[in-house]
UniProtKB/TrEMBL annotation:
Gene3D superfamilies: Dihydrodipicolinate Reductase, domain 2 (3.30.360.10), NAD(P)-binding Rossmann-like Domain (3.40.50.720). Coiled coil: none annotated. SUPFAM superfamilies: NAD(P)-binding Rossmann-fold domains. Residues 160-403 form the Saccharopine dehydrogenase-like C-terminal domain. Residues 5-156 form the Saccharopine dehydrogenase NADP binding domain. InterPro entries: NAD(P)-bd_dom_sf, Sacchrp_dh-like_C, Sacchrp_dh_NADP-bd. PANTHER family: CARBOXYNORSPERMIDINE SYNTHASE. Pfam families: Sacchrp_dh_C (PF16653), Sacchrp_dh_NADP (PF03435). This is Saccharopine dehydrogenase family protein. It comes from Candidatus Faeciplasma avium.
Length: 419
């Protein structure tokens, strides 16, 4: 039993906090702290009478290490669950180190201002050295490993679905089905329909930055970069049906390539409908996806942030979204000298998520693993000093918790492969 501090109170946090509240045997106290404290207060009111956990709220600007340190010192949590944006990862990690508290997040660090010259210099040399141009990478957070280790603290990186569950599926496949894994295809299919011509299922700024960037995959020890949406495949998803999917760069490829050195190729595919892609292309062509500030009527605005203000709040898509998600990994490798393939996936129904927690399945499939990651650090199962991606830890308690907390999984030992 312990106290959890959650930073952020958006779509993902709302699911994670409700699941933590339902798990009051582990999370006896939950403090919800975010920039807009009114959202935290509204969630606290909605949970009143439904949980034994003591819930409090605070306002915090997580871009400020000082504010975070002051907040953590006052609240005194055992674990901080960072569900704000990737921009805040480093300030929250710094504050955890300074106050001696464990850390969990769902997305790796990316700077808000990609034109910052100091960051840009490091970024450009990384692009040249590594061979991929995404704005995010793990080097910033992996650099904290020794400091967390010597402080006796755990930092768990990427405890969402992808990354997160996909990493746990990989560790589980390696532990129970393979001696060596040679190929991994991560397939993220959203068969849900929200009825809007264009909306994103999680934070629009982060989502559009990711989807409009170059694709890439890992092959034979190096990155192969592609143009955005250059590689397209069709796949028949259990529970959803046939969908077009496109190869994207995705953060877990980087950690899986490092942690499973025997892997020959890792690819990540995500499904998109025609309407989404056409809108995105058009917005990109007119400059609305740009992260570079422009001056409009004497005020600096960032086009993608203005677009975010126009688009539906992902947290509001719950009542409208119908259909299912199917996210998982196809592994090919060898066991006892014999080549085999295994597909591990979860199917999640948007309307069932909405009925249970008032949220659509994308927030649900991220919020549940965020709670599980925080739970395993809180209860000691995954309390190992250092900075870890999820595939580095024992997958069994996480896999067991997925079934208990709403994300049951299926193992298909005869899957159709992606060419
Ligand atoms: P939302 O935009 O819905 O929520 C973000 C929350 O963080 C909001 O409550 C926001 O406050 C708060 N916030 C933003 N900046 C600050 C700040 N400076 N100080 C304090 N609070 C702040 O995002 P989502 O819930 O959709 O996503 C949350 C995280 O989950 C993101 O990092 C996203 O990348 C990640 N994610 C991970 C996935 C995975 O599978 N691994 C999948 C989907 C998302 P305010 O209300 O004031 O805006």
């Amino acid at each position: 039993m312990g106290k959890l501090l959650v930073i952020g109170c958006g779509g993902v946090a709302s699911v994670a906090i409700q699941k933590c509240a339902a798990n009051s045997g582990v999370f006896s106290e939950i403090c919800i702290a975010s920039r807009t404290v009114e959202k935290c207060d509204a969630l606290k009111s909605a949970l009143e009478g439904k949980t034994k956990a003591i819930i409090t709220t605070q306002r915090v600007d997580a871009d400020s290490r000082e504010q975070l340190v002051e907040l953590i010192d006052r609240v005194k949590p055992e674990v901080v669950l960072n569900l704000a944006l990737p921009y805040q990862d480093l300030t929250v990690m710094d504050a955890c180190l300074e106050t001696g508290v464990h850390y969990v997040d769902t997305a790796n660090y990316e700077p808000e201002d990609t034109q910052d010259p100091e960051w840009r210099k490091i970024y450009e040399s990384r692009c040249e050295r590594e061979g991929f141009t995404a704005y995010f990478d793990y080097s910033w957070q992996w650099a904290y490993r020794e400091r967390f280790k010597s402080a006796g603290l755990t930092a768990l990186l990427g405890s969402g679905f992808d990354p997160g569950v996909t990493s746990v599926f990989t560790a589980y496949a390696k532990k129970h089905y393979f001696d060596e894994i040679h190929y991994i295809d991560i397939l993220d299919c959203n068969g849900g329909d929200h009825g809007y011509p264009f909306a994103t299922n999680f934070n629009p700024e982060i989502n559009l930055r990711e989807v409009s960037a170059n694709g890439s995959y890992w092959e034979d020890g190096h990155w192969v970069e592609t143009r955005p949406m250059e590689i397209k495949r069709e796949y028949e998803f259990d529970g959803v049906g046939k969908k077009d999917m496109y190869l994207l760069h995705h953060e877990e490829i980087e950690s899986l390539a490092k942690n499973l050195p025997e892997v020959k190729r890792i690819r990540f595919f995500m499904t998109f409908g025609e309407s989404y892609l056409t809108h995105m292309k058009c917005l990109e062509n007119v400059g609305m996806l740009s992260t570079e500030p422009i001056v409009y009527e004497g005020r600096k605005i960032v086009p993608i942030q203005f677009l975010k203000a126009l688009l539906p709040d992902p947290a509001s898509l719950g009542p409208r979204t119908k259909g299912k998600t199917n996210i998982g990994c196809i592994f090919t490798g060898v066991k006892d000298g014999v080549e085999k393939s295994v597909y591990i996936y979860n199917i999640c129904d948007h309307q069932e998520c909405y009925r249970e927690l008032g949220s659509q399945a994308i927030s649900y499939t991220t919020g549940v693993p965020a709670m599980i990651g925080a739970m395993l650090v809180m209860n000691g199962s995954w309390r190992v000093p250092g900075v870890y991606n999820l595939e580095e830890l024992d997958p069994d308690p996480f896999m067991e918790a997925l079934s208990v907390w709403g994300l049951p999984w299926t193992v298909d030992e005869n899957p159709k492969l992606v060419d």
